[in-house]
Amino acid sequence: MNFGIIGGGAAGLAAAYELSRRGHTADVFETAPILGGQASTFTIGGGQLERGYHHLFRSDRDMVQLIREVGLEEHMGWFESKVGLFHGGRVWPFSSPLDLLRFSPLSFGQRLRVGFWTFLLQNTRNWRKFEDITARDWIIGHMGDDAYRVIWEPLLRGKFGDSYNQIGMAWLWSKFRLRVASRGKAWQKERLGYPLCSFGDVFDAVARRIHEQGGRVHTGTTVEHVEVSNGRAAGLTFSSAEFFRETRQYDAVIATTPSYIFPSLVDGLPADYVNQLRSARYLSAVLIILALNEPLSDVYWMNIADRTTPFLGIIEHTNMIDPGLYGGHHIVYITNYLSRDDPMYDLSPGELLAEYLPHLRRINPGFDLGWIVEFHYHKVDGAQPIIGTHYGSEIPDHRTPIRNLYLANTTQIYPEDRGTNYSVRMGRQVARLALDDLA
Ligand SMILES: Cc1cc2nc3c(=O)[nH]c(=O)nc-3n(C[C@H](O)[C@H](O)[C@H](O)COP(=O)(O)OP(=O)(O)OC[C@H]3O[C@@H](n4cnc5c(N)ncnc54)[C@H](O)[C@@H]3O)c2cc1C
C-alpha cells in the first residue's frame, strides 16, 4: 500500500520508517529544507546542534530503539546532568535530595515537606487522580504556599506564561516521574542521553532507511491539500521548487502537523471536529543560543525561579556534552515559551539579547559581551501544547472523520510531556493503526 506522510519531524519519519519496513511505500513531505521539525539542527562552532536544547531520559526507550535500528547506537552517550535553581540572586544546586535539604530560602520543615511529596509523586503510578486538579492547587495543598511561591510558581509561569495557573497536575506529575526514571535508583545521580552525532543525523539516518526500504523523503516540499474522494483520503497535493505543484494518489495519509494547521489542509471536516482542533492551545519556543569562549556556569539545566528575570531557563549544553564538538566553545541556550501575543515574541533577535544581557550578569557577574563568539536566534511555533485539567477528554482521536486520514501530533501525547520519544512511539503506533484499518 502507498502512504503519504505530512511532516518530516520525529513522528512523520517514524511512521514512514515503520510502514516501509513492513513492505509498504511511504512518501514523506517536509516543508522545511531540513528534516527533524522541532528537533532539527543548525551549525554552530563547526558542529551540529539542535535549534532547541535536546536530551533523552532513560525512559525514552522508543527513541533509543530507533537510534539503534538505524545503526547509530555507538553515538549514544549517557551523561550525569547538573541541575540548578536561580533564586534570590544566586544559583542553588538542585540535583539531589541533599540539595533540597540545603535550600535555605525555605524553612527546614518546608524542605522536608517538599521532599516528602516529591518522593510520593515520583513513586505514584496512577496519574488519573491528578486529572481534575491544577498543579497550582495541588502544590499549595500538599507542599504549601511558600514552596509554591518560591519554586513552582516561577517555573510554571516561565513555562506557560499567563496560563500558569490552569496547568493540570497530571502534566506536572509526568515531570516528576521522568526525573526518577532517569536516575535509576533513588541515590543515583540523574543521567541524560544525547546522540553525539546530533538529533539531525539521527533523522537523516532514518530518512536513508526509508529510501532503502522503497520510500521517498522530500524536504522543502509543502503539502497544500489532502485530496478526499467519497469520504476517504485519496492523495496529496504538494509544491516545491522541484515539483512546482503535483498531486499523488495514496491509500492513506498520516498528518503530523500541529492542530491549528491541519484543518486548513482538508476540505469537508465537520465543524465540531475543526473546533476541537482549533481549541488546542500552544506556546512558541523562543531561543537565543550563544557560543561563548568562557563557561557561563557549571550547571547543565538552570531553572529560573525569579520573576524579574525575563527568561525561563538556561541550558548550558557543554556542561554535559564535550565543547570539543563545537570548536571548544561553550554552548548556552537562553529559553522562553511565549504566546504569540506576548510583546517579547515580536522582539528582534538583537532586541531580545539586549533584554537578556543584564540578567546573564546576575547569573555570572563576570559575564562579558566579549565572550560571545556566535549568536543565534530560533523561534519554534507550536512547540508546547498547554495542558489543562481534564486534558485527556479533549484529545482528538488519531482517526479523523475522513476515512484513511490520520492525525498524529504533540497535542495527542498525554500525560507525558511532548518529546521526540513520544512522537516516535506515536508515529509508529499510528502507522500500525492505519495498516490494521486497511487490512
Ligand atoms: C525548545 C524545545 C526543546 C525540546 N527539548 C526536548 C528534549 O530535550 N527531548 C526531547 O525528546 N524532546 C524535546 N523537545 C520536543 C521534541 O522536539 C518534539 O516533541 C518532537 O520533535 C515533535 O516531533 P513531531 O514530529 O511530533 O512534530 P514536529 O517536529 O513539529 O514535526 C512536524 C513537521 O511538520 C512539518 N509541516 C507542517 N506543515 C506542513 C505542511 N503543510 N507540509 C509539509 N510539512 C509540514 C513541520 O515543518 C514539522 O517539521 C523540545 C522541543 C522544543 C521546541
Walkthrough of the structure:
Helices cover 31% and strands 26% of the residues. It has 439 residues and is an alpha/beta fold. Among the domains are: 2-77 and 197-280 and 387-438, FAD/NAD(P)-binding domain, CATH 3.50.50; 96-188, protoporphyrinogen ix oxidase, domain 3 (Orthogonal Bundle). Strand 1, helix 1 (10-21) and strand 2 form a beta-alpha-beta unit. The longest helix is centred in the last third of the chain and has 19 residues, at 420-438. It is globular, with a radius of gyration of 22 Å. The N and C termini lie close together (10 Å). It binds flavin-adenine dinucleotide. Flavin-adenine dinucleotide (FAD) is lined by residues 6-12, 29-32, 37-39, 52-56, 222-223, 256-257, 261, 285, 380, 383, 409-410, 418-421, 423. Flavin-adenine dinucleotide is lined by residues 6-12, 29-32, 37-39, 52-56, 222-223, 256-257, 261, 285, 380, 383, 409-410, 418-421, 423.
Number of helices: 11
Largest sheet geometry: 7 strands, mixed
Which class best fits the helix and strand makeup?
alpha/beta
Name of the CATH class of the domain at 2-77 and 197-280 and 387-438: Alpha Beta
